[in-house]
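Crash report, auto-generated. Payload:
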Amino acid sequence: MRFLTLTVTLFLVMGLKAQTYTINPFQGGYFDPHPSIGGNFILNTDDFLMSVQGGLSDTGYDYYVGLEFGTRPGRKQILVEDNEINNLYYQYHENINFFGVNLEKKFYFLGFKEKQKVGLYAGMRSGFMWGNYRGVSDYGKNRWYISPDLGALYTYNNTSFKLGYTILDIPSIESSNFINFEISYIFNRHKNDD
Amino acid sequence: MTKIKYFGLILSSIFLNLLFSACGNDGGGGCDPDKICYTEKPTVLFADLKLSTRADIDSLRVNYYRGNVDDGDLLISFLTEVSNEYIESPVGNNYSAEAIYYLNDKTIIVVDGHRISARSFTNCEETCWNWDYIEFDMELAD
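Recovered output after restart:
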């Protein structure tokens, strides 16, 4: 929660201090891809995942495509009900990982002095999720996943901060609603890019 | 505006630290003359099975395997009422355990597993071996 509070405070302070101008998020652009890297915290009250990603950010049309590897740091104790025998449960130490593709479109609508922009983003993760239980050879819950993602975006020069809502279906977790916090960096972006 | 760059760097640093925190090691180098150093390499270590002793447990059975619980070799099986059981285990193998808790209205099987191996670290240019018990978390979750 400290990260979120700090990010929101930074948004507000910089917004008050700087001159603002509006941006049409649907204006035409040009294809201008740059390599970028990022890291995500994906969390809710039941679970916490982290991921790293790398790909291409098109700063002209504000698209992003990349690969992402994520994991649950540490293991989580979970309770699994037996499918065949009533009142029989298994308690495991579970770890999960995922690897997939990220697609994203950014919609900037407000700009500030000194290369700051605010907007919204919409994205989609898709890939393969696998895991294991400590002390057990058969996991049985490996699966393909699709995870939509939506939220707010703040960019300063080459660095972006995102705070959004994502749906990620993890079989052992009751809720599939997660908060996503991301920090990313675009390499070799032109000095005069907006 | 350089503040935000520092903020980004700090966040990235925290992120990477968290991500790789699970990949710890026993350290290497340094010198602490007060640190206890066992120079003999262990051939067996003790698995420390941590168990629940709640009042609503009717009985508790522990099964200990070399390998995994679903495809390993059962080494020992016993009933117990204590909160810790110690099982001598030759190093260099994977071990797993299941604690079968028979409660009033249900049965819960708690499973855990570890690789038990000899681990060393260097202290004052001497190789020291870790003889710590290997903890198996077999307690019932709340």
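Post-recovery validation: DSSP finds one helix and nine strands in chain B.
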